[in-house]
Specification:
The protein is an alpha+beta fold. It is 36% helix and 18% strand.
């Protein structure tokens, strides 16, 4: 009887054990089902961007493309110069550590690339030194999380790419730093607000954290999976901004920033886990390369609306799009940029840090079929509607027009609804000031990031509507919530351009019944701006404005002559009512009255040497519809 009882207890115990095991297996299976990937199949190191053995593909593409060899030689040469640099130190500029983080990304990416391509130990030793230096920082400055994102990406690339050769003590140091200086603060809401944003912060910060998770996956599997899964959810938000047509709301400068990190995020998921989990299929995203292709004018300058500069930078991400879409024409202007030295500059660390992406993304790209783009018009709706015309793709030839809608209350927005730029050959005639350095404004206590109607932001000379290439009524600000819609586009032999409804931007008190702007290049020969306005019960004062880097002279009551670099452009004005042509100064804002108030612009405003503004003032009677035509013709 005792033996029987013992056997029964043993059978019972075994049964219970089997139930427990089955339960654990079920839990594990359910947990795996809730994951977006089968993480057991993660690629071995190196797994981020460039898998093990793919160095040979890079070397092969370099050997067959002289432009690629130029970039490769630059990376190796710059890496050699970095060997003599002192390790980076923790040093904030105002509230930012970003300059240091970007230098870290430049150094660690270049040096790691150089080591993988050459296996020269001098690069490995320098990487060890820089890794230990930045991992010793007191923090990576999570209060400005861009700093964390770029720093985490920097150390993750080096850790992953040099994993087999780094000292174990260095690897432990990196893992600890990623956990404490990146992962942990990303769960503190006041620091990690980027997780709920639709702009470039989301792309940059999530990309950096993702790189960290992929790098230290084996050692911190649970925490890494949590970061990856959170990224897949959060990162859907900035992708919405590309819809439906791919035009980037914040302009080409910020496209270069946000989209570069967005592409790196996708590429890292693909190389490490086999796919980007469908993120790149977001409406408009894969077409955004066409937007960026058209963002550069014949002058070699960007259509720099919002907080954007006109200077063109290298865009290595275009090689990812060209490879994915099997469309070499997307890098037509990038190949020219390589020849013009944009990929081999060393004085702009915030632009140069991602240059190795070009060789990584182009490793399978065939350039033998490289041809100029065919279309002359790009159009995009969405958050910031835009139309761009380029009549010729040879450098310095043809004409270029960009016009936009949208609203001021948007990330990095200006009161520039209806604004336009215009190039003829190498010269830009209608220009945009672009941004003023944030630090120069923040250091003076300017309420820069408040987008409300009466915010101090709109007293900044470069940001308000008075000083953009647009219309102003009654000397009042644009309506920050007034969305200027692109009504139609024109793409035929006669005219190329667009019609924008700017009434919502101009109206604060329903002053106008109609306000549209049509901007077209006519017969491939000249630019015509046609504005139609209809007033209500009260008359309206109108201000028409255009910024130019040319010298300006009023010839008669209907004509202004522009001159620069030995070329002339005639601007002719015509309307149903009298106009008063004006030339407005713009070089030293602090000397000029701000029409929104009774005082001059603040001393904090940046000077704009070599610029002037032209246009006219007019009074539109009550209940009257008026058409204003402005034509810019070569002389």
């Amino acid at each position: 009887m005792m033996v029987k009882n013992c056997l029964s207890k043993r059978v019972f115990a075994i049964h219970i054990l089997l139930l427990v095991i089955c339960a654990k297996v079920a839990v594990a299976q359910n947990a795996n089902l809730s994951h977006s990937y089968d993480y057991s199949k993660i690629a071995p190191h190196p797994r981020i961007l460039l898998n093990k053995g793919e160095e040979q593909l890079v070397k092969k593409s370099i050997a067959s493309n002289p432009e690629f060899l130029t970039v490769y030689s630059h990376i190796i040469g710059f890496s050699n110069k970095l060997l003599a640099e002192k390790p980076l130190e923790f040093k904030k500029d105002g509230k930012r550590l970003l300059a240091v983080s970007r230098k870290a990304l430049t150094r660690l990416y270049y040096l790691s690339f150089s080591y993988r391509m050459t296996k020269e130990v001098k690069y490995l030793n320098k990487v060890e030194e820089e890794l230990n230096a930045v991992c010793n920082f007191e923090s990576w400055n999570p209060s400005h999380f861009l700093d964390v994102g770029e720093m985490c990406m920097a150390v993750a690339i080096a850790y992953d790419w040099l994993y087999d050769d780094l000292k174990e003590s260095t690897k432990q140091h990196v893992r600890k730093a990623i956990l404490e200086k990146a992962f942990e603060p990303s769960y503190i809401k006041e620091d990690a607000w980027f997780l709920e944003r639709h702009n470039n912060w989301n792309s940059v910060c999530n990309a950096g954290l993702l790189f960290g998770a992929l790098a230290i996956f084996e050692s911190e599997k649970e925490k890494s999976i949590a970061i990856i899964e959170r990224t897949l959810t959060s990162n859907k938000l900035p992708l919405e901004a590309y819809g439906p047509d791919g035009n980037y709301p914040e302009g080409p400068g910020y496209w270069n920033y946000g989209t570069s990190f967005q592409v790196m995020l996708f590429a890292a998921l693909e190389s490490a886990l086999g796919s980007d989990n469908g993120l790149s299929k977001a409406p408009g995203f894969m077409n955004t390369a066409n937007y960026m292709l058209y963002a550069v004018g014949t002058s070699g300058k960007y259509f720099n609306y919002y907080d954007g500069g006109a200077s063109v930078a290298a865009s290595p991400s275009m090689f990812w799009f060209a490879s994915k879409l099997k469309d070499p024409s997307l890098v037509y202007t990038e190949i020219k940029a390589i020849k013009n030295g944009l990929y081999t500059r060393t004085n702009k660390s915030d632009e140069e840090r991602l240059i190795p992406n070009m060789l990584v993304f182009a490793k399978n790209l065939k350039l033998s079929a490289l041809k100029a783009p065919i279309n002359q018009l790009y159009k995009g709706n969405g958050i910031t509607p835009i139309a761009i015309v380029r009549t010729d793709w040879e450098s310095g030839k043809g004409r270029y027009l960009g016009i936009k809608g949208g609203k001021a209350e948007d990330a990095h927005g200006h009161m520039d609804q209806g604004t336009f730029v215009y190039d003829v050959g190498y010269l830009r005639w209608a220009a945009d000031f672009g941004l003023q350095s944030y630090i120069t404004l923040e250091s003076k206590g300017v309420d820069l990031w408040n987008m409300s109607q009466n915010s101090e932001r709109w007293d900044i000379f470069r940001y308000n509507n008075l000083n953009h290439n647009t219309l102003t009524i009654n000397n009042q600000r644009h309506n920050v919530n007034g969305f200027a819609k692109m009504v139609s586009t024109f793409d035929n032999r006669k005219e190329l351009g667009a019609l924008v409804d700017i009434k919502p931007a101009l109206n604060l008190k329903n002053e106008l019944k109609v306000a549209t702007r049509k901007a077209t290049i006519v017969d491939g020969a000249y630019l015509k701006i046609e504005d139609v306005l209809e007033t209500g019960a009260d008359p309206v004062d109108l201000r028409w404005n255009m910024l130019t880097p040319a010298a300006a002279k009023i010839i008669d009551q209907q004509t202004i002559m522009l001159s620069q670099q030995g070329k002339n452009l005639v601007v002719k004005f015509k309307s149903d009512i009298p106009l008063n042509l004006v030339i407005r100064p713009s070089e030293d804002p602090a000397k000029y009255k701000n029409e929104f108030g009774n005082s001059n612009y603040g001393e904090y405003n940046q000077k704009n040497i070599g610029t002037v503004m032209i246009g006219f003032d007019a009074k539109i009677p009550a209940n009257k519809k008026v058409t204003f035509k402005v034509v810019l013709e070569d002389n």
